[in-house]
């Protein structure tokens, strides 16, 4: 559960779709989360997915979970400049411990 | 209401000072957390309180002393800190158990600078 990996950077143009990827190691993870962090701010919960689900959609956000490959992705449709931030995935299989990925910095160019 | 508040927003202190960080939530959550976050890194768990009792201490130096006076409040007392303790300190809360109920909600953080 401690090796949650993300690519460090992603750059897209405004209006395009962004896909942020995450791989985790613990197959007993119960929930997987996506958080957004803007500069100087705390972490904002975007969405989470239960491990028995393959997909979850919430407005512009789509989460895909591939349990076989232990791969989680977050797709942001119609990316806006306000989406520029660092995105962290996190897994939990123990109610009180989260394991965060290293974070992906999303840069949205106008 | 999914708000966790933290005060102060910024804190500058010397290595001989004693200060406290405060965190408050009114969501009825019974688990509260302190994290330390260095620049461009993910948050690192420091302490977890469950039902106002310390349940996890991630080998944090004793110059950091947590306190949970009631189910809505969490404090972090600071004493004799080092410059390398400068970081963003994040508080979070969650329900204890249940479907989706361990989701952690974060406060805005306190930016701490130790001179």
Key features of this structure:
heterodimer; A: about 110 residues; mainly beta; 6-stranded mixed beta sheet; 5-stranded antiparallel beta sheet; about 60% strand; B: about 120 residues; 7-stranded mixed beta sheet; globular
Output the helix-strand order of chain A.
EEEEEEEEEEE
β-strand amount of chain A: over 45%
Most extensive chain contact? A-B, 22 and 31 residues
* SSE class of chain A: mainly beta
Q: Which runs of chain A of at least 5 residues are low in confidence (pLDDT < 50)?
A: none
The 3D shape of chain A can be described as: globular
Q: What characteristic shape of chain B results from the CA principal axes?
A: globular
Helix content of chain B: under 10%
Instruction: State the end-to-end CA separation of chain B.
Output: 36 Å
What is the H/E order of chain B? EEEEEEEEEEE
Number of strands of chain A: 11
Tell me the number of helical segments of chain A per DSSP (H or I, 4 or more residues long).
0
Please bin the fraction of helical residues of chain A: under 10%
Q: Can you describe what's shown?
A:
With 110 residues, chain A is mostly beta strands. In chain A, 0% of the residues lie in helices and 58% in strands. Chain A contains no helices and 11 strands. In chain A, strands 2, 4, 5, 9, 10 and 11 form a 6-stranded mixed beta sheet that branches. The termini of chain A are far apart. The model of chain A has no long low-confidence stretch (mean pLDDT 91). Chain B has 115 residues and is an all-beta fold. Chain B is built from no helices and 11 strands. In chain B, strands 2, 4, 5, 6, 9, 10 and 11 form a 7-stranded mixed beta sheet that branches. In chain B, strand 7 and strand 8 form a beta hairpin. Chain B is globular and about 40 Å long. Chain B starts with a strand and ends with a strand. Chains A and B meet through strand 4, strand 5 and strand 10 of A and strand 5, strand 9 and strand 10 of B.
